[in-house]
Amino acid sequence: MYAIVQTGGKQYKVQSGDHLKVEKIAGDPGSEVTLDQVLAIGSADTISLGKPLVADAAVKATIMRTARDRKILVFKKKRRHAFKKKQGHRQWYTLLKIESIMTGTAMEATS
Predict the structure, then answer these.
(1) Residue-level pLDDT at 106
(2) How far apart are CA 15 and CA 28, in angstroms?
(3) How far, in Å, CA of 46 to CA of 96, rounded?
(4) Which sequence spans correspond to the domains of the chain?
C-alpha cells in the first residue's frame, strides 16, 4: 500500500518503512508525527483519490533527525557596475521514517 502526502508545499509518494527527507518539522528525534494531508491512497489493484484530500486517512511517521542540507551558493552580479555578491544558504530538513498508512477503520481503532 502506498500514499501520496503533501507537506512543506511538496508532494511525496510513501510506503511503510520508507525514509523521507522533508522541509523542517518541529519536534524532537524519536517523536511521532501524523501527516494528515493525504492526496491519494493506493495498492496494486485499486486507488482512492481525494478531492482534494482523502477523508479519514493519515500517515504516521517518526522523526529520525533534523539537520541542515548541503550548501547552495547564491551569486549575484550586475555587469558594468562592479557589483558582485556571493552568499551561501543551508536549508533545514527533517528525516522521517514512515511507520504506517492509516485509513478510516484503522484511525478509529487507534483513536
Answers:
(1) 59
(2) 22
(3) 26
(4) 2-106
Q: Residue 47, CB half-sphere, CA atoms under 13 Å: how many?
A: 8
Q: How many residues does the chain have?
A: 111
Determine whether 54 is exposed, middle or buried from the number of CB atoms within 10 Å of its CB (0-12, 13-18, 19+).
buried
Cα-based distances in Å from 56 to 14, 42, 59: 17, 14, 11
Q: Mapping DSSP to helix (H, G, I), strand (E, B) and coil, where does residue 6 land?
A: strand
The pTM for the full model equals 0.82
Cis peptide before 52 (omega within 30 of 0): yes
Q: Which amino acid is at 82?
A: A
- pLDDT at position 44, please? 87
Residue type, 48: S
